Amino acid sequence: MIRSRVESTREFNYRDVDFERIKAIIYCKAGIHLGDSKKQLVYSRLARRLRALHLPDFATYLTYLEQEPAEQEEFVNALTTNLTAFFRESHHFTILADYAKQHQSRAHRLRVWCAASSTGEEPYSIAITLAEAFGRYDPPVDIIASDIDSNVLAEASRGVYSLDRIEALPLEQKKQFFLRGKGSNAGKAKVIDQLRRLVEFKKINLLDKHWPLQGPFDVIFCRNVMIYFDKPTQMALLERMTRLLRPDGLYIAGHSESFTQATHLVRLVGKTTYHLASTADEGAGHEI
Ligand SMILES: C[S@@+](CC[C@H](N)C(=O)[O-])C[C@H]1O[C@@H](n2cnc3c(N)ncnc32)[C@H](O)[C@@H]1O
């Protein structure tokens, strides 16, 4: 068999059977469905782990993975895709601001779950939007931001970003919600403490049977994570999340995630933004 140039120049031996095992493990642990086109991507992400552990090839790494629970977390962290940005898909933040303004007279605090928060840009964008909508740094708002990846959660809770990450934000937002680093922190910006206080970070694997949080939520952001899951997993998660929404709550999906077929659960009310289908509100508020 002719091996491709990429395969023959690889630093570590990486066979199809290794890739198949990796696919099965990440599917089982995180629900992430890896297509065959991801073989090289997986190699480059895990090769870093082999180097760090001084292991000779993927077969040895996979045996090590089976025996070392701590490595399992590193494995998942290495294989998640964490692409995000402040105010990514900005239309959702306009919708959130309108929703918050319409509900300002409510007795309860607005509760938002950001279910795949990556390095924090998304929950802090939610916090900025709500601070602006309520016109105060301490709006009556609680945001839970969760992710499966412990590295991104640690980064998110630090709330420190290189200046290029916030470059596209209006000057006023940069001034109001970030502190510019000096000395050894030059070139960085830190989210102000008032904003950080609005966000609680939690490690949550959406695949777990029990989520350590309690509904009801007014808004659930679950953007650009469902795409990694197969359809049955997506539907099961959507069903669980809608049970956590208030009857007039919002479910916000990513740009390539469509649930228009799930008419028994949700109804489209804006760009990848959903309300509960009229019968789906029973059980909101129950811990699951
Ligand atoms: C592409 S990022 C999306 C970030 C953000 N929601 C956005 O739209 O900008 C996908 C995130 O989903 C997380 N993720 C993947 N599988 C997960 C799972 N089973 N449970 C929770 N989070 C998961 C990844 O760690 C990653 O941070």
UniProtKB/TrEMBL annotation:
Superkingdom classification of source: Bacteria
CheR-type methyltransferase domain sequence ranges: 7-279
Swiss-Prot/TrEMBL GO biological process terms: methylation
Recorded coiled-coil stretches: none
Binding site for S-adenosyl-L-methionine: 82, 84, 88, 122, 147, 205-206, 223-224
SUPFAM superfamilies listed in its UniProt record: Chemotaxis receptor methyltransferase CheR, N-terminal domain (SSF47757), S-adenosyl-L-methionine-dependent methyltransferases (SSF53335)
EC number: 2.1.1.80
Keywords, sorted A to Z: Methyltransferase, S-adenosyl-L-methionine, Transferase
UniProt entry tagged with the keyword Transferase: yes
GO molecular function: protein-glutamate O-methyltransferase activity
Catalytic reactions on record: L-glutamyl-[protein] + S-adenosyl-L-methionine = [protein]-L-glutamate 5-O-methyl ester + S-adenosyl-L-homocysteine
PANTHER family: CHEMOTAXIS PROTEIN METHYLTRANSFERASE
Function statement: Methylation of the membrane-bound methyl-accepting chemotaxis proteins (MCP) to form gamma-glutamyl methyl ester residues in MCP.
Full protein name: Chemotaxis protein methyltransferase
